[in-house]
Amino acid sequence: MGERSGFQGVIGPTRAESTPWWPPEPQPPEGAPNVLVVVLDDVGFAQLGCYGSDIATPTLDGLAAGGLQYTNFHTTALCSPTRACVLTGRNHHTAGMGRVVDLATGFPGYDADLPRSCGTLPEVLAPRGYAAYAVGKWHLTPEHEHHLGASRARWPLGRGFERWYGYFDGETSQFGPTLLSDNHAVPPPADHEDGYHLTEDLIDHGLSFLGDLRAVQPDKPWLLYLCPGACHSPHQSPPEWRERYRGHFDQGWDVWREETFARQLATGVLPEGTDLSPRPDWVPAWDSLSEDQRRVSARYMECFAAYLSHFDHHLGRLLDRLRETGELDNTLVMVLSDNGASSEGGPNGSVNDVRIWNMAQMSIEESVERIDEIGGPTIHNNYPWGWTVAGNTPFKRWKRETHEGGVCDPFIVHWPDGIAARGERRRQYGHAIDLVPTILEAIGIEMPAVIDGVEQQPIEGTSLAYSFDAPEAPERHTVQYYEMFGSRALYADGWKAVAYHPIADTSASYDDDVWELYHVAVDPSECHDLAAAEPERLQALIDRWWVEAEAHQVLPLDTDIITAILGTERPGIPDREHYEFRPGGGPVPETCTVNVRNRSHSVRAELAGALGDAEGIVLVQGSVLGGWVLFVADGRLHYVHNYVGLEQHRVTSAPLDPAARTFALRFERTGEHRGVAHLLADDREVGAGEIPRFTPVRFAITGDGVHCGEHWGVPVCADYRMPFRFTGPLHRVLVDVDGEPFADPESDAHDALRKQ
Questions:
Q1: How far does CA 591 lie from the centroid of its chain?
Q2: Cβ neighbours of residue 497 under 8 Å, at least 6 residues apart?
Q3: In the CATH scheme, what architecture does the domain 479-565 have?
Q4: Domain boundaries, the chain
Q5: Is the model's pTM score more than 0.90?
Q6: Is 740 helix (H, G, I), strand (E, B) or coil?
Q7: pLDDT digits (tens, 9 = 90+) for 305-337
Q8: Potential cystine with 252: which of 286, 304, 346, 543 (Cβ 3.0-4.6 Å)?
Q9: Under 8 Å between Cβ of 421 and 68
Q10: What is the CA 34 to chain-centroid distance, rounded?
Q11: CATH H-level superfamily of 35-467
C-alpha cells in the first residue's frame, strides 16, 4: 500500500498490523520566554513618569524600575512605518511603509505592501511553537484592502498572527470604535452610555486570548502584540479619569517643560550637560495666550494625561494576571512609542481632526463652548502645539519629522529571568528595527532564510541583547538613516546630519533644505549646530544618506500627501456609478465605496414588504464628527448631513404611508459643496430642503464607513442610539451617483496641511 510522504509509522492491511504516527509539534527552545510588545501611540519622550513627566504612569514606571530604560532609542517618526519596523526588523522603506498606509503610492518604498520577503515576528515564532496574538491598532494593511470582500493576505491573520481583535486605521473613537475580530467586523460590545471604553476592551481581549491558551496548553510560550489607541487622538477616557487632572496643567506648557527638563537631568534620564532646546518661535509663549486659550489648552492636556494614565491602569491588570499566574518573570516585555508627540492638533488644539482634511477652521470660541465635552464621545480632541513641544522635552520638533522630537522615543525592557539589571538606564543607540533581532536572540532562535517558500531579505536591525547587562558596552547599531515626508537625517557613530522639509508643500525644493549637524552623543537635544564648523563631516553624512536611500527604496522623495489621498487610484477599487448594499453586512470603508461628496446622487431603499411601523437606519456614513444618515423614526423619513461636527442640516418628510414599499433620498447638487435633498416614498416627493454646506474631502478619519440597516459606532446625530437596527423588511439599498465629484479642494487641503 502507498504511504503519505513523510509518514513514519507503518501502514499494513489492517489496524492490527499498522502503527500510527503523528508529526511532532514544533517546540520552542527550553525556557523560551513569553513576549509582550506594547506599542504606544504618539507618546513623546517626556510623557511617561520614568522619563521626567508628572503624569501618573505607575505600571510603566514599575516596568522600568524592574528592568531597563533606554534613553537613546529611535523610531521612524510615524506610526505605520515604525510598526513595520517593529514586526519585521527591516527599515520602513524596505518593508514598503515609507509612510502611513493611508498615503500609499505606487512606488516600492511607499506601496504599503509589506512584502512576504520581510517576514514578521509571528511568522517566525508561530512555526516554532509560539502562540501569536495581536490586540489593538494594526495600520499595516493598505486602505483598499480594509473592506470585508478583500483578500486577508495583509490582515493580521494573514501575516502570522493566530488571533486579532482591534482596528485597521490610524485612529478610532475610544467610545464607538470600528472593530474587527480575526477576519470579520464586529460591533463594539457595548455603548459608551453603558460605560464602554476601547482600552478596557482591548485588555480584556488580551487576557481572554491568554486565558484560552492556558486552559489547554499551560506551558506554551506566547507573543502578544498590544497596540492601544493611547495616546493618539482622540484623547478620550472615562469622565472620572478626566477629573483626576482638573487644574493639573494650569501652569502651562513653558513651565511644565522646564520642570520636566529639571527632573530629567536630576534623575539621569538625560546626560549631564544636555541643554533644553528653545521653544520654536511659531509656538506662542503660554503667558501670551488669552484667558480662554489657557483654560482650553490646559483642558486638552488634562484629557491627554487622563488617557495615558487610564491605559497605564489597564495595562496593570494584564501584568497583574501574569504575576498571579507566575509568568511575569519569564515574560520579555518591551514598551515603546511609535513616534514623538503629535502636532496634528494645530496651534490651538482640535475638537475634531476631521476638519483638517476638510479645510474647516477650529476656533477657541467653539472649544470654550464645548470645554466640558473635551475627552468625551462627541469630541475628537487633540492638544495644541505647545503641549507637543513640551511632550518631546528636551528635543526639537515633533512627529512626522526627523529631528529628535520626532524620532527619539521611550523604550522600556523588563525580563527578570533574562536580565540581571534592575532599574538601570542604557544610552546605547537603538532603533525600532532592533526589536526583532533582540527578541530572537533572547529566545535563542535565528531568522529563517525562507518563510513559506519565500526567500527572506536580511534583517537590518541589530540585537540590543548585548546591552542588557553591559551598561558601558560600545553601541553596535552605528549607522541609521531617516526619511519622513521629505525630511531626512543620517546617524553615524554619535553624529547626526538632519534636514527639515516642509510637509505637503509641493513647491518647496529639496535643494533648498538646510542640513544641520549635531554631535548627538554629547548634544542629544540638537542645540549646537556644527554644520559651519565641520562642513566635511556634514557632507560625508549627507553622501552616506544618499547611499542608504538607494539601498532601502527611499526614492523618489515625495511630500505630496493630498495627491496620495485624492488623486491616487487604489488597486481593485474602481469608481462606479451604481452601488448596492444589503442589511446584515459589516461597514464598508470610505475609501472603498461610493463617493457622494460634491456630486448629485440618489439613495433608494427597497423593502420586501410594507413599511408598517418600522424604524431604524437605512444607510449611514460617518459619525458625530461628520457624515450623513438616512433613517426612519416616528413614522417619517429623515436625512441629516453633519458638516464636520459644526453644523447639522436636516430634512424631514411628511408622515409616511405604512403601505410604502420604497423610499429614497435624491440629492441635487446646486453648487460647490451644496445642494438640495429631496425625500421620496414610492417615488412621490414627501419632503425637501437645502443642504448649504456639504463635506468636501473626507467624512471620517477613524474608519467609520457605510452601514446598511444599522450603525456601529458613535451616531451622526443625537436622534438615535447604536445600533438602531431597521425593524422592517429592508431588502436592499441602491446608491447611484451622477457626474464627476468637484475636485478643487485639493489646493486648499495642501494649504491646510502646510499650516500643521
A1: 17
A2: 489, 490, 515, 516, 517, 538, 541, 542, 545
A3: 2-Layer Sandwich (3.30)
A4: 35-467, 479-565, 574-746
A5: yes
A6: coil
A7: 999 999 999 999 999 999 999 999 999 999 999
A8: 286
A9: yes
A10: 25
A11: Alkaline Phosphatase, subunit A (3.40.720.10)
